[in-house]
Known about the structure:
The protein is of the alpha+beta class and about 425 residues long. The protein folds into 4 domains: about 5-70; about 115-210, Beta-Lactamase (2-Layer Sandwich); about 210-280; about 290-425, Heat Shock Protein 90, CATH 3.30.565.10. Helices cover about 55% and strands about 15% of the residues. The protein contains 12 helices and 12 strands. α1 (about 5-25) packs antiparallel against α2 (about 30-70), α7 runs antiparallel to α8 (about 255-280) and α9 (about 295-310) runs parallel beside α10 (about 330-345). The longest helix has about 40 residues, at about 30-70. This is histidine kinase.
Amino acid sequence: MSFRTRFALYILAVHAVIIYLTFRLLQDNKVLFIAAEVLVLVSTVIAIQLYREFRRPSDFIASGIEAIKDKDFTIKFVSTGNPEIDQLIDVYNLMIDQLRTERTKQMEQQFFLEKLIDAAPIAILIFDFDDRIATINPRASRLLQLSLEQLEQRTLADVDHPILSSLIDLEDGEARTIKTNGIETYKIQKSFLMDRGFRRSFLMIEELTGEILDTEKKAYGKVIRMMAHEVNNSIGAVNSILDVTQSTMDRPEENDLRHALRVAIERNNRLNYFMRRFADVVRLPQPHKQPADLNELARDVTQLMQPQAEARGVTLACLPFQAPVVRAIDTGQFEQVLVNVIKNAIEASRAGQAVEVVVNEHLLTVRDNGTPIPDEIAANLFNPFFSTKPDGQGIGLTLTRDILMNHGFTFSLKTNAEGWTEFVIIHHPG
């Protein structure tokens, strides 16, 4: 039974007793009886008024509680003229002002944080309390090529992605640098935030590929230019002297010396060619793109490389797409890419093995079933001047890397589970 009901019953009971006693005692004196009844009526009215005054603070409190429950911090009460009630109203209004200020501040901070995360140049993944992906920013979606709908409520172990798969064992507070497909380099840091008293983890993935490649190219470019300058100047002067000296030797007894001079000149020319190949990496121009059919280009390069494959007893075949695959490319540079990649595939194969050039709507793949690439070597294949060949300069894949990146194409080189080594170029339309 509520307080209101109990109080009403109490007032009724008291006044009923008073009316009964008044009737018993004053029924013979009508004047006093009527006066007593009037007093009882006045007392009832006063009791009801006092009850309403007494209830008013409770009503204010109840209204305030309802407003707080509804998270409505705009409702304030006006003064009533009653000092006791006004004191309660002042306290409530002050509390509501503070709550509204804090809520506005929190909403502004939340809005700013969301905008900051969305505009961040690094990929951010935020997890829920069960380490399932709760939200990602646009940069993460572009980097992973996955939407929030594809990642939401999934753990890292549930997502088949080369970056996320390598972070399953990463703990809060740890940082790690990983390299995918031998080129793309990422710095990953895992941390946590406190949400309602519990930890929630988040990942920050920063792509370092462009920065590292720029720094790398500036470093080796400076060295190559300096070396090429010194070698070219020296070789030009030395060959000039050797040519003059050779032209003056016409006596038979000088044949051996003339032969030695010719060998020295040829060696100098090979050294000059050697340095020019290094300089090509630095002087690589931006691609001059024109529409070209990748099917036709793949067939032409396959035919060009056919003698090398036959010399090693390797089967070389081109498998074009059933329709033209037209892309805006620098034909000369892209042809150089295919020459380098097919040549490497042929050299990695033995007699009886096969090299295939496969073109489809979105991929161009050069694959061979020759010697697999070990993981420790795969991570370094595109590093400048890295080579597994005794006489290799490590130039071919560096040029290939730079050409494809200048075209805006993504690529990878690895041996799959079936033992085929695949160089995959993802060619985007446009």
